[in-house]
Design brief:
The protein is largely without helices or strands. The protein has helices at 29-37, 53-60; strands at 5-8, 17-20, 94-97, 115-118. Helix content is 11%, strand content 11%. The strands form 2 sheets. A two-stranded antiparallel sheet has the order 1-2. A two-stranded antiparallel sheet has the order 3-4. A hairpin with an 8-residue loop joins strand 1 and strand 2.
Length: 148
């Protein structure tokens, strides 16, 4: 099972969260590398240590014990910290696109441009279009069709 970093961004009871899909390991690279390379025959490149939601979770050592943590609470074992001195990225550097692995209208970049990344950032996880499940009928527009 992959443990990912879904960060709730709203109030309790309201569906509002962000899936952090990737990140750059800037501190603790040897520990992240040990976590990611456990059971692998080949080494993992620095840019790939936390590239992809499952890999990010593994590199950070996230597991089910971290569910529901308050990332803003003092002393929390997991927290978010903005790098000092970087400021906000220029608007033209922020890119948007379709969500990964979502088919139908929900995967439309025009209707739901809910995947964000910084242009030129090498640690961004690769985009993969949703693939239909084997044996599942599809309409001409690509939406799933209910079985009779």
């Amino acid at each position: 099972m992959h443990c990912c970093a879904n960060i709730v961004t709203g109030t309790a009871g309201a569906a509002s969260a962000v899936l952090i899909r990737a990140g750059e390991v800037v501190d603790g690279v040897p520990l992240a590398r040990r976590r990611r390379e456990r059971g692998r025959a080949s080494p993992v490149a620095d840019r790939d240590l936390a590239r992809g939601p499952g890999n990010l979770g593994r590199a950070l050592g996230l597991d089910r014990q971290h569910d529901g943590l308050d990332l803003c609470a003092p002393g929390s074992p997991v927290s978010l910290t903005a790098p000092s001195g970087t400021g906000r990225p220029e608007e033209r550097a922020v890119r948007t696109g379709p969500r990964v692995g979502v088919s139908g209208e929900g995967g439309s970049a025009e209707l739901f441009p809910w995947r964000f990344w910084l242009a030129g950032e090498v640690t961004v996880s690769a985009y993969r279009a949703a693939a239909p499940r084997r044996g599942e009928p599809r309409s001409t527009s690509g939406h799933r069709v209910g079985r009779q």
